[in-house]
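Blinded run. Sample ID left blank on purpose so nobody reads anything into the name before looking at the predicted structure. Input follows.
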Amino acid sequence: MKIKIILILVFVTIIFFKIDFQRENNKIEIKRFVKEVLFCNKDTLIYKDKQNNIIFYDLKNLSFIKNSEDNFLETINENNFLVEDSKFNKKIMNKFGVEIIRLPYKEYKKLGSYLFLFDSKYLYNVETKKIVEIDNDYDFGLVSDKIIPVKDTKTSKIGYLSDKGKILISPQYDGGTFFKNEYVIVKDGENIKIINKENNTVFITQNTDKIQILSDRTILITRKYESILYDFILNKTLIRTKYMKRLKDNQIIYMENNKFGMLDNFGNVRLKALYDEIGEERNGTIILAKNYKYFIKNIYNDNKSKEFDILLRKEDYFISIDDNSGEYIFLNSRGEKIIAGNFLEFTVLGEFILGEVQQKKFFFYKAGKCLKEFSDKDNLLYATKDVFIFRNKNGIEIYL
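Blinded prediction complete.
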C-alpha cells in the first residue's frame, strides 16, 4: 500500500511540474507568479516570488533548481551570482543555486566579471576561489586583462595590481588607462608613455592629443591635424594621414583625397578610400555611402545590396524608410526586406524587434516572424539581446 502511495505522489509531482512548464521551439511558458526577474540566459532563470524568495530554474531541462531566502545582490557572470543572507554575509552562488563560498564582509565593490573587493582590503577571485589581503590603502578601478589599476590614497599616484593581489607596478604615475595586449598608457608628468607589465617604457611622447593601443605592436596617434598608425616595436610609422578613427577592433577608418576607407590594425587596406561614409563592420557586412546613396556590402567579396536613400544599422538588422508610405523597412545582411511597419517607435536587441504601431499596440518579432501582439508594455519584465520575458495571466513567457 505504501509503495502505491509513493508511486502516486511521484506521478502527481511529475504531472505538476509538466503543467508548470511548457516549451514550444524557442518559447517557454512557466505557470508561476513572478514578482521580479533577476537574471535570465538560455540556461538559467532567477526570479523573486511573492514572498521575495529567490527561485532558480534550469531552462534546458525545464526543472526547478533551488529556492533561496537570501537577498539577491547582483550578477557576477552568467554562471555566478552574489547574494546576502539575513545576517548580511555575502555568498557566491552558482547557476544551480549552490553556495560556492561564504564571505563574512559588509562592504563590497565589483571590479569585473570575476573579481570582488570586500571591506576595502580583501580581494576575492571567483575563478580561483581564493581571498587575498591587500596591505596598502588603495582606491581600486575595474579589472582589465586581469590587472587592476589602483590609486594610492596618500599620494594619489596610479599603479597596477595583479588579480592575485600582487603589486606589478607600484603607484608612481599621474594617470593611467587599462592594460590591453600586455601594454598600458600612463601619464608621467608632461609625458605620455606606453609601458609593459615589467614597467618598461616602449613608447614616449609629449605632444600627442590621444593614443590608442590597437595590438601588441601598433598604436593610433591622433593629433590636431594628423593621425598616425605607428609600430612601436619597429619604431616605424606605418601610415600618416589627415584623419583616422578606430571603430572597433581591427577596423580603422582612414581618409584619402576626402574619401573614406578601412584599414586593419597593421595598416593593411580592407576597403579602398572610395566612399563618402563608412559604418561599423559586423559579421562581414558594412553600410557604405557613395554619391548620396547607401548600400550594404560584404567586405569579403564584391557582393552588395541595392541602393537606398536612407540606411542605418541596429544590432542584427539594417533599417531603411519607404519614401512613399513612411514605413520602417528592416533588412537582412543581403538587403532583403524582413518586415516593414509604421512604427511610432521601436527597440532592437539582437534578433528581437519590439515595435509600437499605435498607442498601446505593440508587436514583438524575431528573425522576421511576429511572435506576439500585446497592449501593455508593463508586461515586459526582462529584455536582453538573447532573452525577452513577458508576464501573462498564468505566469511568464520566455522567448529565446
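Unblinding after everyone has recorded impressions. The domain at 207-267 is CATH 2.40.10.360 (Thrombin, subunit H).
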